[in-house]
Amino acid sequence: MAEQSLTVLKPKDFASDQDVRWCPGCGDYAILNQIRKVCAKIGATRENTVFVSGIGCSSRFPYYMNTYGMHSIHGRAPAFATGVKIANPELDVWIVTGDGDGLSIGGNHLLHVLRRNVNVKILLFNNEIYGLTKGQYSPTSPEGKKTKSSPLGSIDLPLTALSVALAAEASFVARAVDVDKDLSNVLERAAEHNGSALVEIYQDCNVFNHKAFSYATDKDSKEEHIVRLEHGKPLIFGKDRDKGIWLDGNRKPRIVELGKGIQADDLLFHDEHDESLAFLLSRLQHPEFPEPVGVFYSIQDDCYETLLQKQVDDAIAAKGEPDIDALLAAGDTFEVK
Fold first, then answer.
1. Which of 67, 29, 77, 63 is nearest to 47 (CA)?
2. Under 8 Å CB-to-CB from 6, ≥6 apart: which residues?
């Protein structure tokens, strides 16, 4: 009997039959296209892939992927995704959320899916605004941001998503930009990671917060304002690769020019396994510093669903297979006639 050839899926095979209804020019389109490409590249299958979302513009994502999906409720995507992964650990589960959905009403759920190290991939679209509800300030909006809900300027201290994730003991933390060349590489790394993987994606809302991240997207100047993280390599940036990040005697980061008493070997070197360094990098923000993009932190640890299954297996080995009828009939019972 001849062997059947396996079907190789292409990016277009992950596109659903639904019309994509984001605003023209929205950064979500770029992310959607990259996710479809990555799914094809890593050999994902449609029947084994699940996208779970909450509420917001980003949360329309499951409709546009020809996979399984669930459009859940505001901020609770991590809880639904955890249930899916526990019920069938063989599934590849992705969470799509936004800075409002994930860091405001869903902040508590995000913390716990990260600390538990559930093997799900979390895409946090950060546009520093509430887009779906028409332009209110969000947990990541900068201080002084004037919006419909902060007409005199926001007085809230904004959350830094990656700092929060690292504090929650996430095992993989990364950042990318919606239209940047390295987005697909970061998504691939997240997909390959065994454990909770959070990728913050700077995403342009061209209606309510246009060009919030222009410093990281302008082709002529972005290399002056971002530093690309590479494990084991010095933090060098600039269009001419002539600047770097150096730690002074007080372990404070400083921007220095190469060749003026400072060489590449003197700079801060990136180590994806150093949690303290990852946190330090998460605090570098434009315009004072170039903002790091790439993988900040990556370690291997036990996954929640694996530990949970071991508990179940150990209990069965010790006490035998469960008997639901016996459990229901145990103790005091009541008969309703």
1. 67
2. none
Which tokens is 269 given?
């070197």
Q: Helix or strand or coil: residue 265?
A: helix
Residue where the block lists tokens 């505001």: 74
Residue whose C-alpha is closest to residue 47's, from 16, 106, 17, 91: 91
Tell me, yes or no, whether 16 lies in a domain. Answer: yes
Task: Output the domain CATH number for residue 69.
Answer: 3.40.50.970
Residue-level pLDDT at 6 = 66
Identify the pLDDT of residue 80. Answer: 98
Domain assignment present for residue 108? The answer is yes
- Give a yes or no: residue 177 inside a domain: yes
Within the chain, which residues score under 50 in pLDDT? Answer: 1-5
Residue 330: per-residue pLDDT: 84
Query: What is the per-residue pLDDT for 2?
Result: 42
Residue 125 lies in a domain: yes
> Which residue stretches of the chain are H helix?
28-41, 77-87, 99-100, 107-115, 161-167, 183-192, 275-282, 304-319, 324-329
Question: Quick check: 163 and 278 in contact, CB under 8 A?
Answer: no
337 DSSP assignment: -
Number of domains the chain contains:
1
